[in-house]
Amino acid sequence: MNIVTVNYDGVQVPVNMPEDLALVCDHLTTVKRGRFGFIAGHQSGVSDKKCIRPTVSDITFITNPRYDRYLERMAVAVAAVGFLPLVNSLPQSTYKEMKAKDKGQDIEALFNLAKGEILASLQTSQAGDGTDAHRMGHRLCYATYDAGDIPVKCHLVTEDDETGHKRPVATANGLMEVKSLMLPFFTVSRKVTDPGEWLPTNSQAKTLMKDAIREFTGLPSWKELSLGKGNFRTLTLDKATVFGLVAEPLKAVVSVPQADFFAYIAGLADGFWTAIEALSEVVTAVHS
């Protein structure tokens, strides 16, 4: 276990970080913005109570997007969404589900409510206001490792406090401990190799409308991959860096072992061509 310094709620503090994670953390700080990355065998939903069997995917993505620009672009795109174009784009099944769950509320009123709440939330995030309960909880459960130009987000080990909120806990030496690293990205393409099995969800009408509005913008969703729970097979960044094995401790390897070289090349090539296919589909859709 290493002791490293992180930024926790605006204060520099020492925390425990597993050695393997510290190696990966140091490497992530060298990855530039806008590069292609590829993760194979990623398992989503490992710790989700609604997940019976995780969804497994191979994902090609763009590294280290800027959250501030994402917020700006999403706010502009959401503000431009009109009621009639959105409703006309909805599948009949989704529209009927909204109508059944809106409890007599007019569907346009539901749209205005959902759109207003999305814009208000984006404005709060842009202003850096973390005083509401959700953002405060998020802020207190994470820290940033500030080596390099792009800080690495660290998820701390937490437990429920007496009020039922997640809060970091001190370990044997009195310090908080890093549980996993969070890698932000925009998806270029995603190939689901196992859809998994999930308990059915019962989303409210307003949630369905918010999802529809965000999807209608055509902008990618902000995503973060959790690294450190043995929930992926390999992660490829900056050509020859591969680390992580499912159900095994996270390991950082700065060069590809000869025995794994061809497997590495195959994974990188597969991710590249998947990305090209996805971009081709976008171009075709724009011109059609």
Q: How does the SSE layout of this entry go?
A:
Layout: E1 2-8, E2 11-17, H1 19-28, E3 36-44, E4 51-53, E5 55-63, H2 67-79, H3 83-89, H4 92-101, H5 107-127, H6 133-140, E6 142-145, E7 152-156, E8 158-160, E9 166-168, E10 178-194, E11 197-198, H7 205-217, E12 223-227, E13 234-237, E14 241-243, E15 252-253, H8 261-287
Helix pairs in contact: 2-5, 4-7, 5-7
Q: Would you give an account of this structure?
A:
The chain is built from eight helices and 15 strands. It is globular. A hairpin with a 2-residue loop joins β1 (2-8) and β2 (11-17). It has helices at residues 19-28, 67-79, 83-89, 92-101, 107-127, 133-140, 205-217, 261-287; strands at residues 2-8, 11-17, 36-44, 51-53, 55-63, 142-145, 152-156, 158-160, 166-168, 178-194, 197-198, 223-227, 234-237, 241-243, 252-253. It has 288 residues and is of the alpha+beta class. The N and C termini lie far apart (55 Å). The protein has one domain.
How would you summarize this macromolecular structure in one to three sentences?
The chain is an alpha+beta fold. It has helices spanning 19-28, 67-79, 83-89, 92-101, 107-127, 133-140, 205-217, 261-287; strands at residues 2-8, 11-17, 36-44, 51-53, 55-63, 142-145, 152-156, 158-160, 166-168, 178-194, 197-198, 223-227, 234-237, 241-243, 252-253. 38% of the residues lie in helices and 29% in strands.
What distance lies between the first and last C-alpha atoms, to the nearest angstrom?
Answer: 55 Å
Q: How many domains, as an integer?
A: 1
Question: Which structural class should the secondary elements be placed in?
Answer: alpha+beta
Series of secondary-structure elements, N-terminal to C-terminal:
EEHEEEHHHHHEEEEEEHEEEEH
| Alpha plus pi helix count | 8
Average of the residue pLDDT scores? 79
Oligomeric state of the chains present here:
single chain
% residues in beta strands? 25-35%
Which stretches are poorly predicted, pLDDT < 50 over at least 5 residues?
245-288
Quick one: how many beta strands? 15
Largest sheet: number of strands, sense, barrel closure: 9 strands, antiparallel
Overall outline: globular
Helix content: 25-40%
- Radius of gyration computed on alpha carbons: 21 Å
